[in-house]
Amino acid sequence: MSRNSIKILPGALVCEESKLRGDITIGAGTIIHPSATILAEAGPIIIGDCCLIEEQAKIIHRLPFDEQDTEKTPVLIIGAHNVFEVDCHVESPKIGNCNVFESKCFVGNKVTVTNGCTVGAGCKVTEEQILKENVIIFGEKCQMREGLDRPGLQTLQMETLSKVLPNYHHIRKPNKKN
């Protein structure tokens, strides 16, 4: 088991009550809610700038079972402007920019997420694949279609949270320079 090495860039807002374990770097402007969980089991996680990780969201970096014996420790890179909504569970080995993981969705560790994708509420994606840019997964049967645009940025919500969360939660101090 790896030791905790949490690096928080200036401008990030990370609630002390969040569960962070392993080698994790958190980008500037990223907000992590109090009961979010981020576990770097297979190797380091680097979270890009301006991501939003909401209550009970889980990001877990673990190797697929058929790769458990490899000696190299891959890095999970999560791009900028991603939104992980309440109670989503994401184990993807690579996540691009501007994606939305809606409430209670599940993304397995053999699914690569490119840019501008939306995994709908309650959808479960586990089959090995690379999601094309701007793909939307939705509905009971997890149908896929191509979106016309990328999901919008959560700028107003991020601004509100950066003002409100420090009033009600202890915030971890940045410990790394840009």
What does this structure look like?
The protein is 8% helix and 34% strand. The chain has 178 residues and is mainly β. The chain has a single domain, classed as Hexapeptide repeat proteins (UDP N-Acetylglucosamine Acyltransferase, domain 1), CATH 2.160.10. The strands form four sheets. It has a nine-stranded mixed beta sheet with strand order 20-19-16-13-11-8-5-2-21, covered by helices on one side. A hairpin with a 4-residue loop joins strand 19 and strand 20. The longest helix is centred in the C-terminal third of the chain and has 14 residues. The model has no long low-confidence stretch (mean pLDDT 92).
Which keywords apply here?
single chain; 178 residues; mainly beta; UDP N-Acetylglucosamine Acyltransferase, domain 1; 6-stranded parallel beta sheet; 21 strands; 8% helix; Trimer_LpxA-like_sf; cytoskeleton; Dynactin subunit 6; dynein complex binding; DCTN6
Query: Approximately how much helix is present in the residues?
Result: under 10%
- The CATH homologous superfamily is termed Hexapeptide repeat proteins
Structural class: mainly beta
Low confidence ranges: none
Q: How many domains make up the coordinates?
A: 1
- The H-and-E topology, N to C, reads as EEEEEEEEEEEEEEEEEEEEHE
Round the mean pLDDT to the nearest integer and report it.
92
Report the CATH C-level class: Mainly Beta
Shape: globular
Number of distinct helices = 1
